[in-house]
Design goal:
By secondary structure, this protein is mostly beta strands. The chain is 12% helix and 59% strand. It contains two helices and nine strands. It has an eight-stranded antiparallel barrel with strand order 1-2-3-4-5-6-7-9.
Amino acid sequence: MKLKHLTLISWCFFICRLSAQDSSSQKLNDEIGFDVTSFITLYSGLSAYPYEGYNYYSVGNYLLGYKHYFNHIILRTALSLDVDNRSERGGANSYTNYKSTGESFDIRAGIEHLVPLSPHWEMYYGLDILGGYGKSSSVDTEPDTSNLYARDEYATVNRIGAGPVLGVTFLINRRISLTTELSVYGLNAHSETRYDYYNNPPEEFQHDTRITDDFYMNIQYPLFVFFNIRL
């Protein structure tokens, strides 16, 4: 049996055990959430990056989250990790084959105010602060050393920011729920990009480094679903 099938069966068994142990008198103040949209994408074998190239500026989906409840006030934190590794032809860096890689890590922490709407629906609003790091590279695997403009790129970015969030939760039972949310983050980013230009003769290089400081907005639309378990 494949590992991913075994993992899915184990999760179903774990959820059934939790539901069977539910007690209305038990206080459930802690919650763990998983981005099931990314899990389904990985499980089905679909690409997690439908667009061409890798945007190391972008804040990725938060795959794992934790919340602690103080009645209607909630403290929250979450982790994001994106990895991209691909080989392509053409693009901005060359007209031959090149290998592109990218990594991005982010952590956020914030506070929410919970607003019950019905026995099965809740909404919340709040504020996050976040920070992260990303890097990417694009290396020509068939460099044309006679072309001065053929180049490899290596980039890093450090970012920090904050912004509001607005979400909605569907309660399956006291322990299990589904959540999606909209967030709008303002971010300051410091990036360094190094360009290696091939020249003729082939043993010679030209190096160029570009350093930038930018402010930009990152909007995460409610296109993902968190599967949450209260403990």
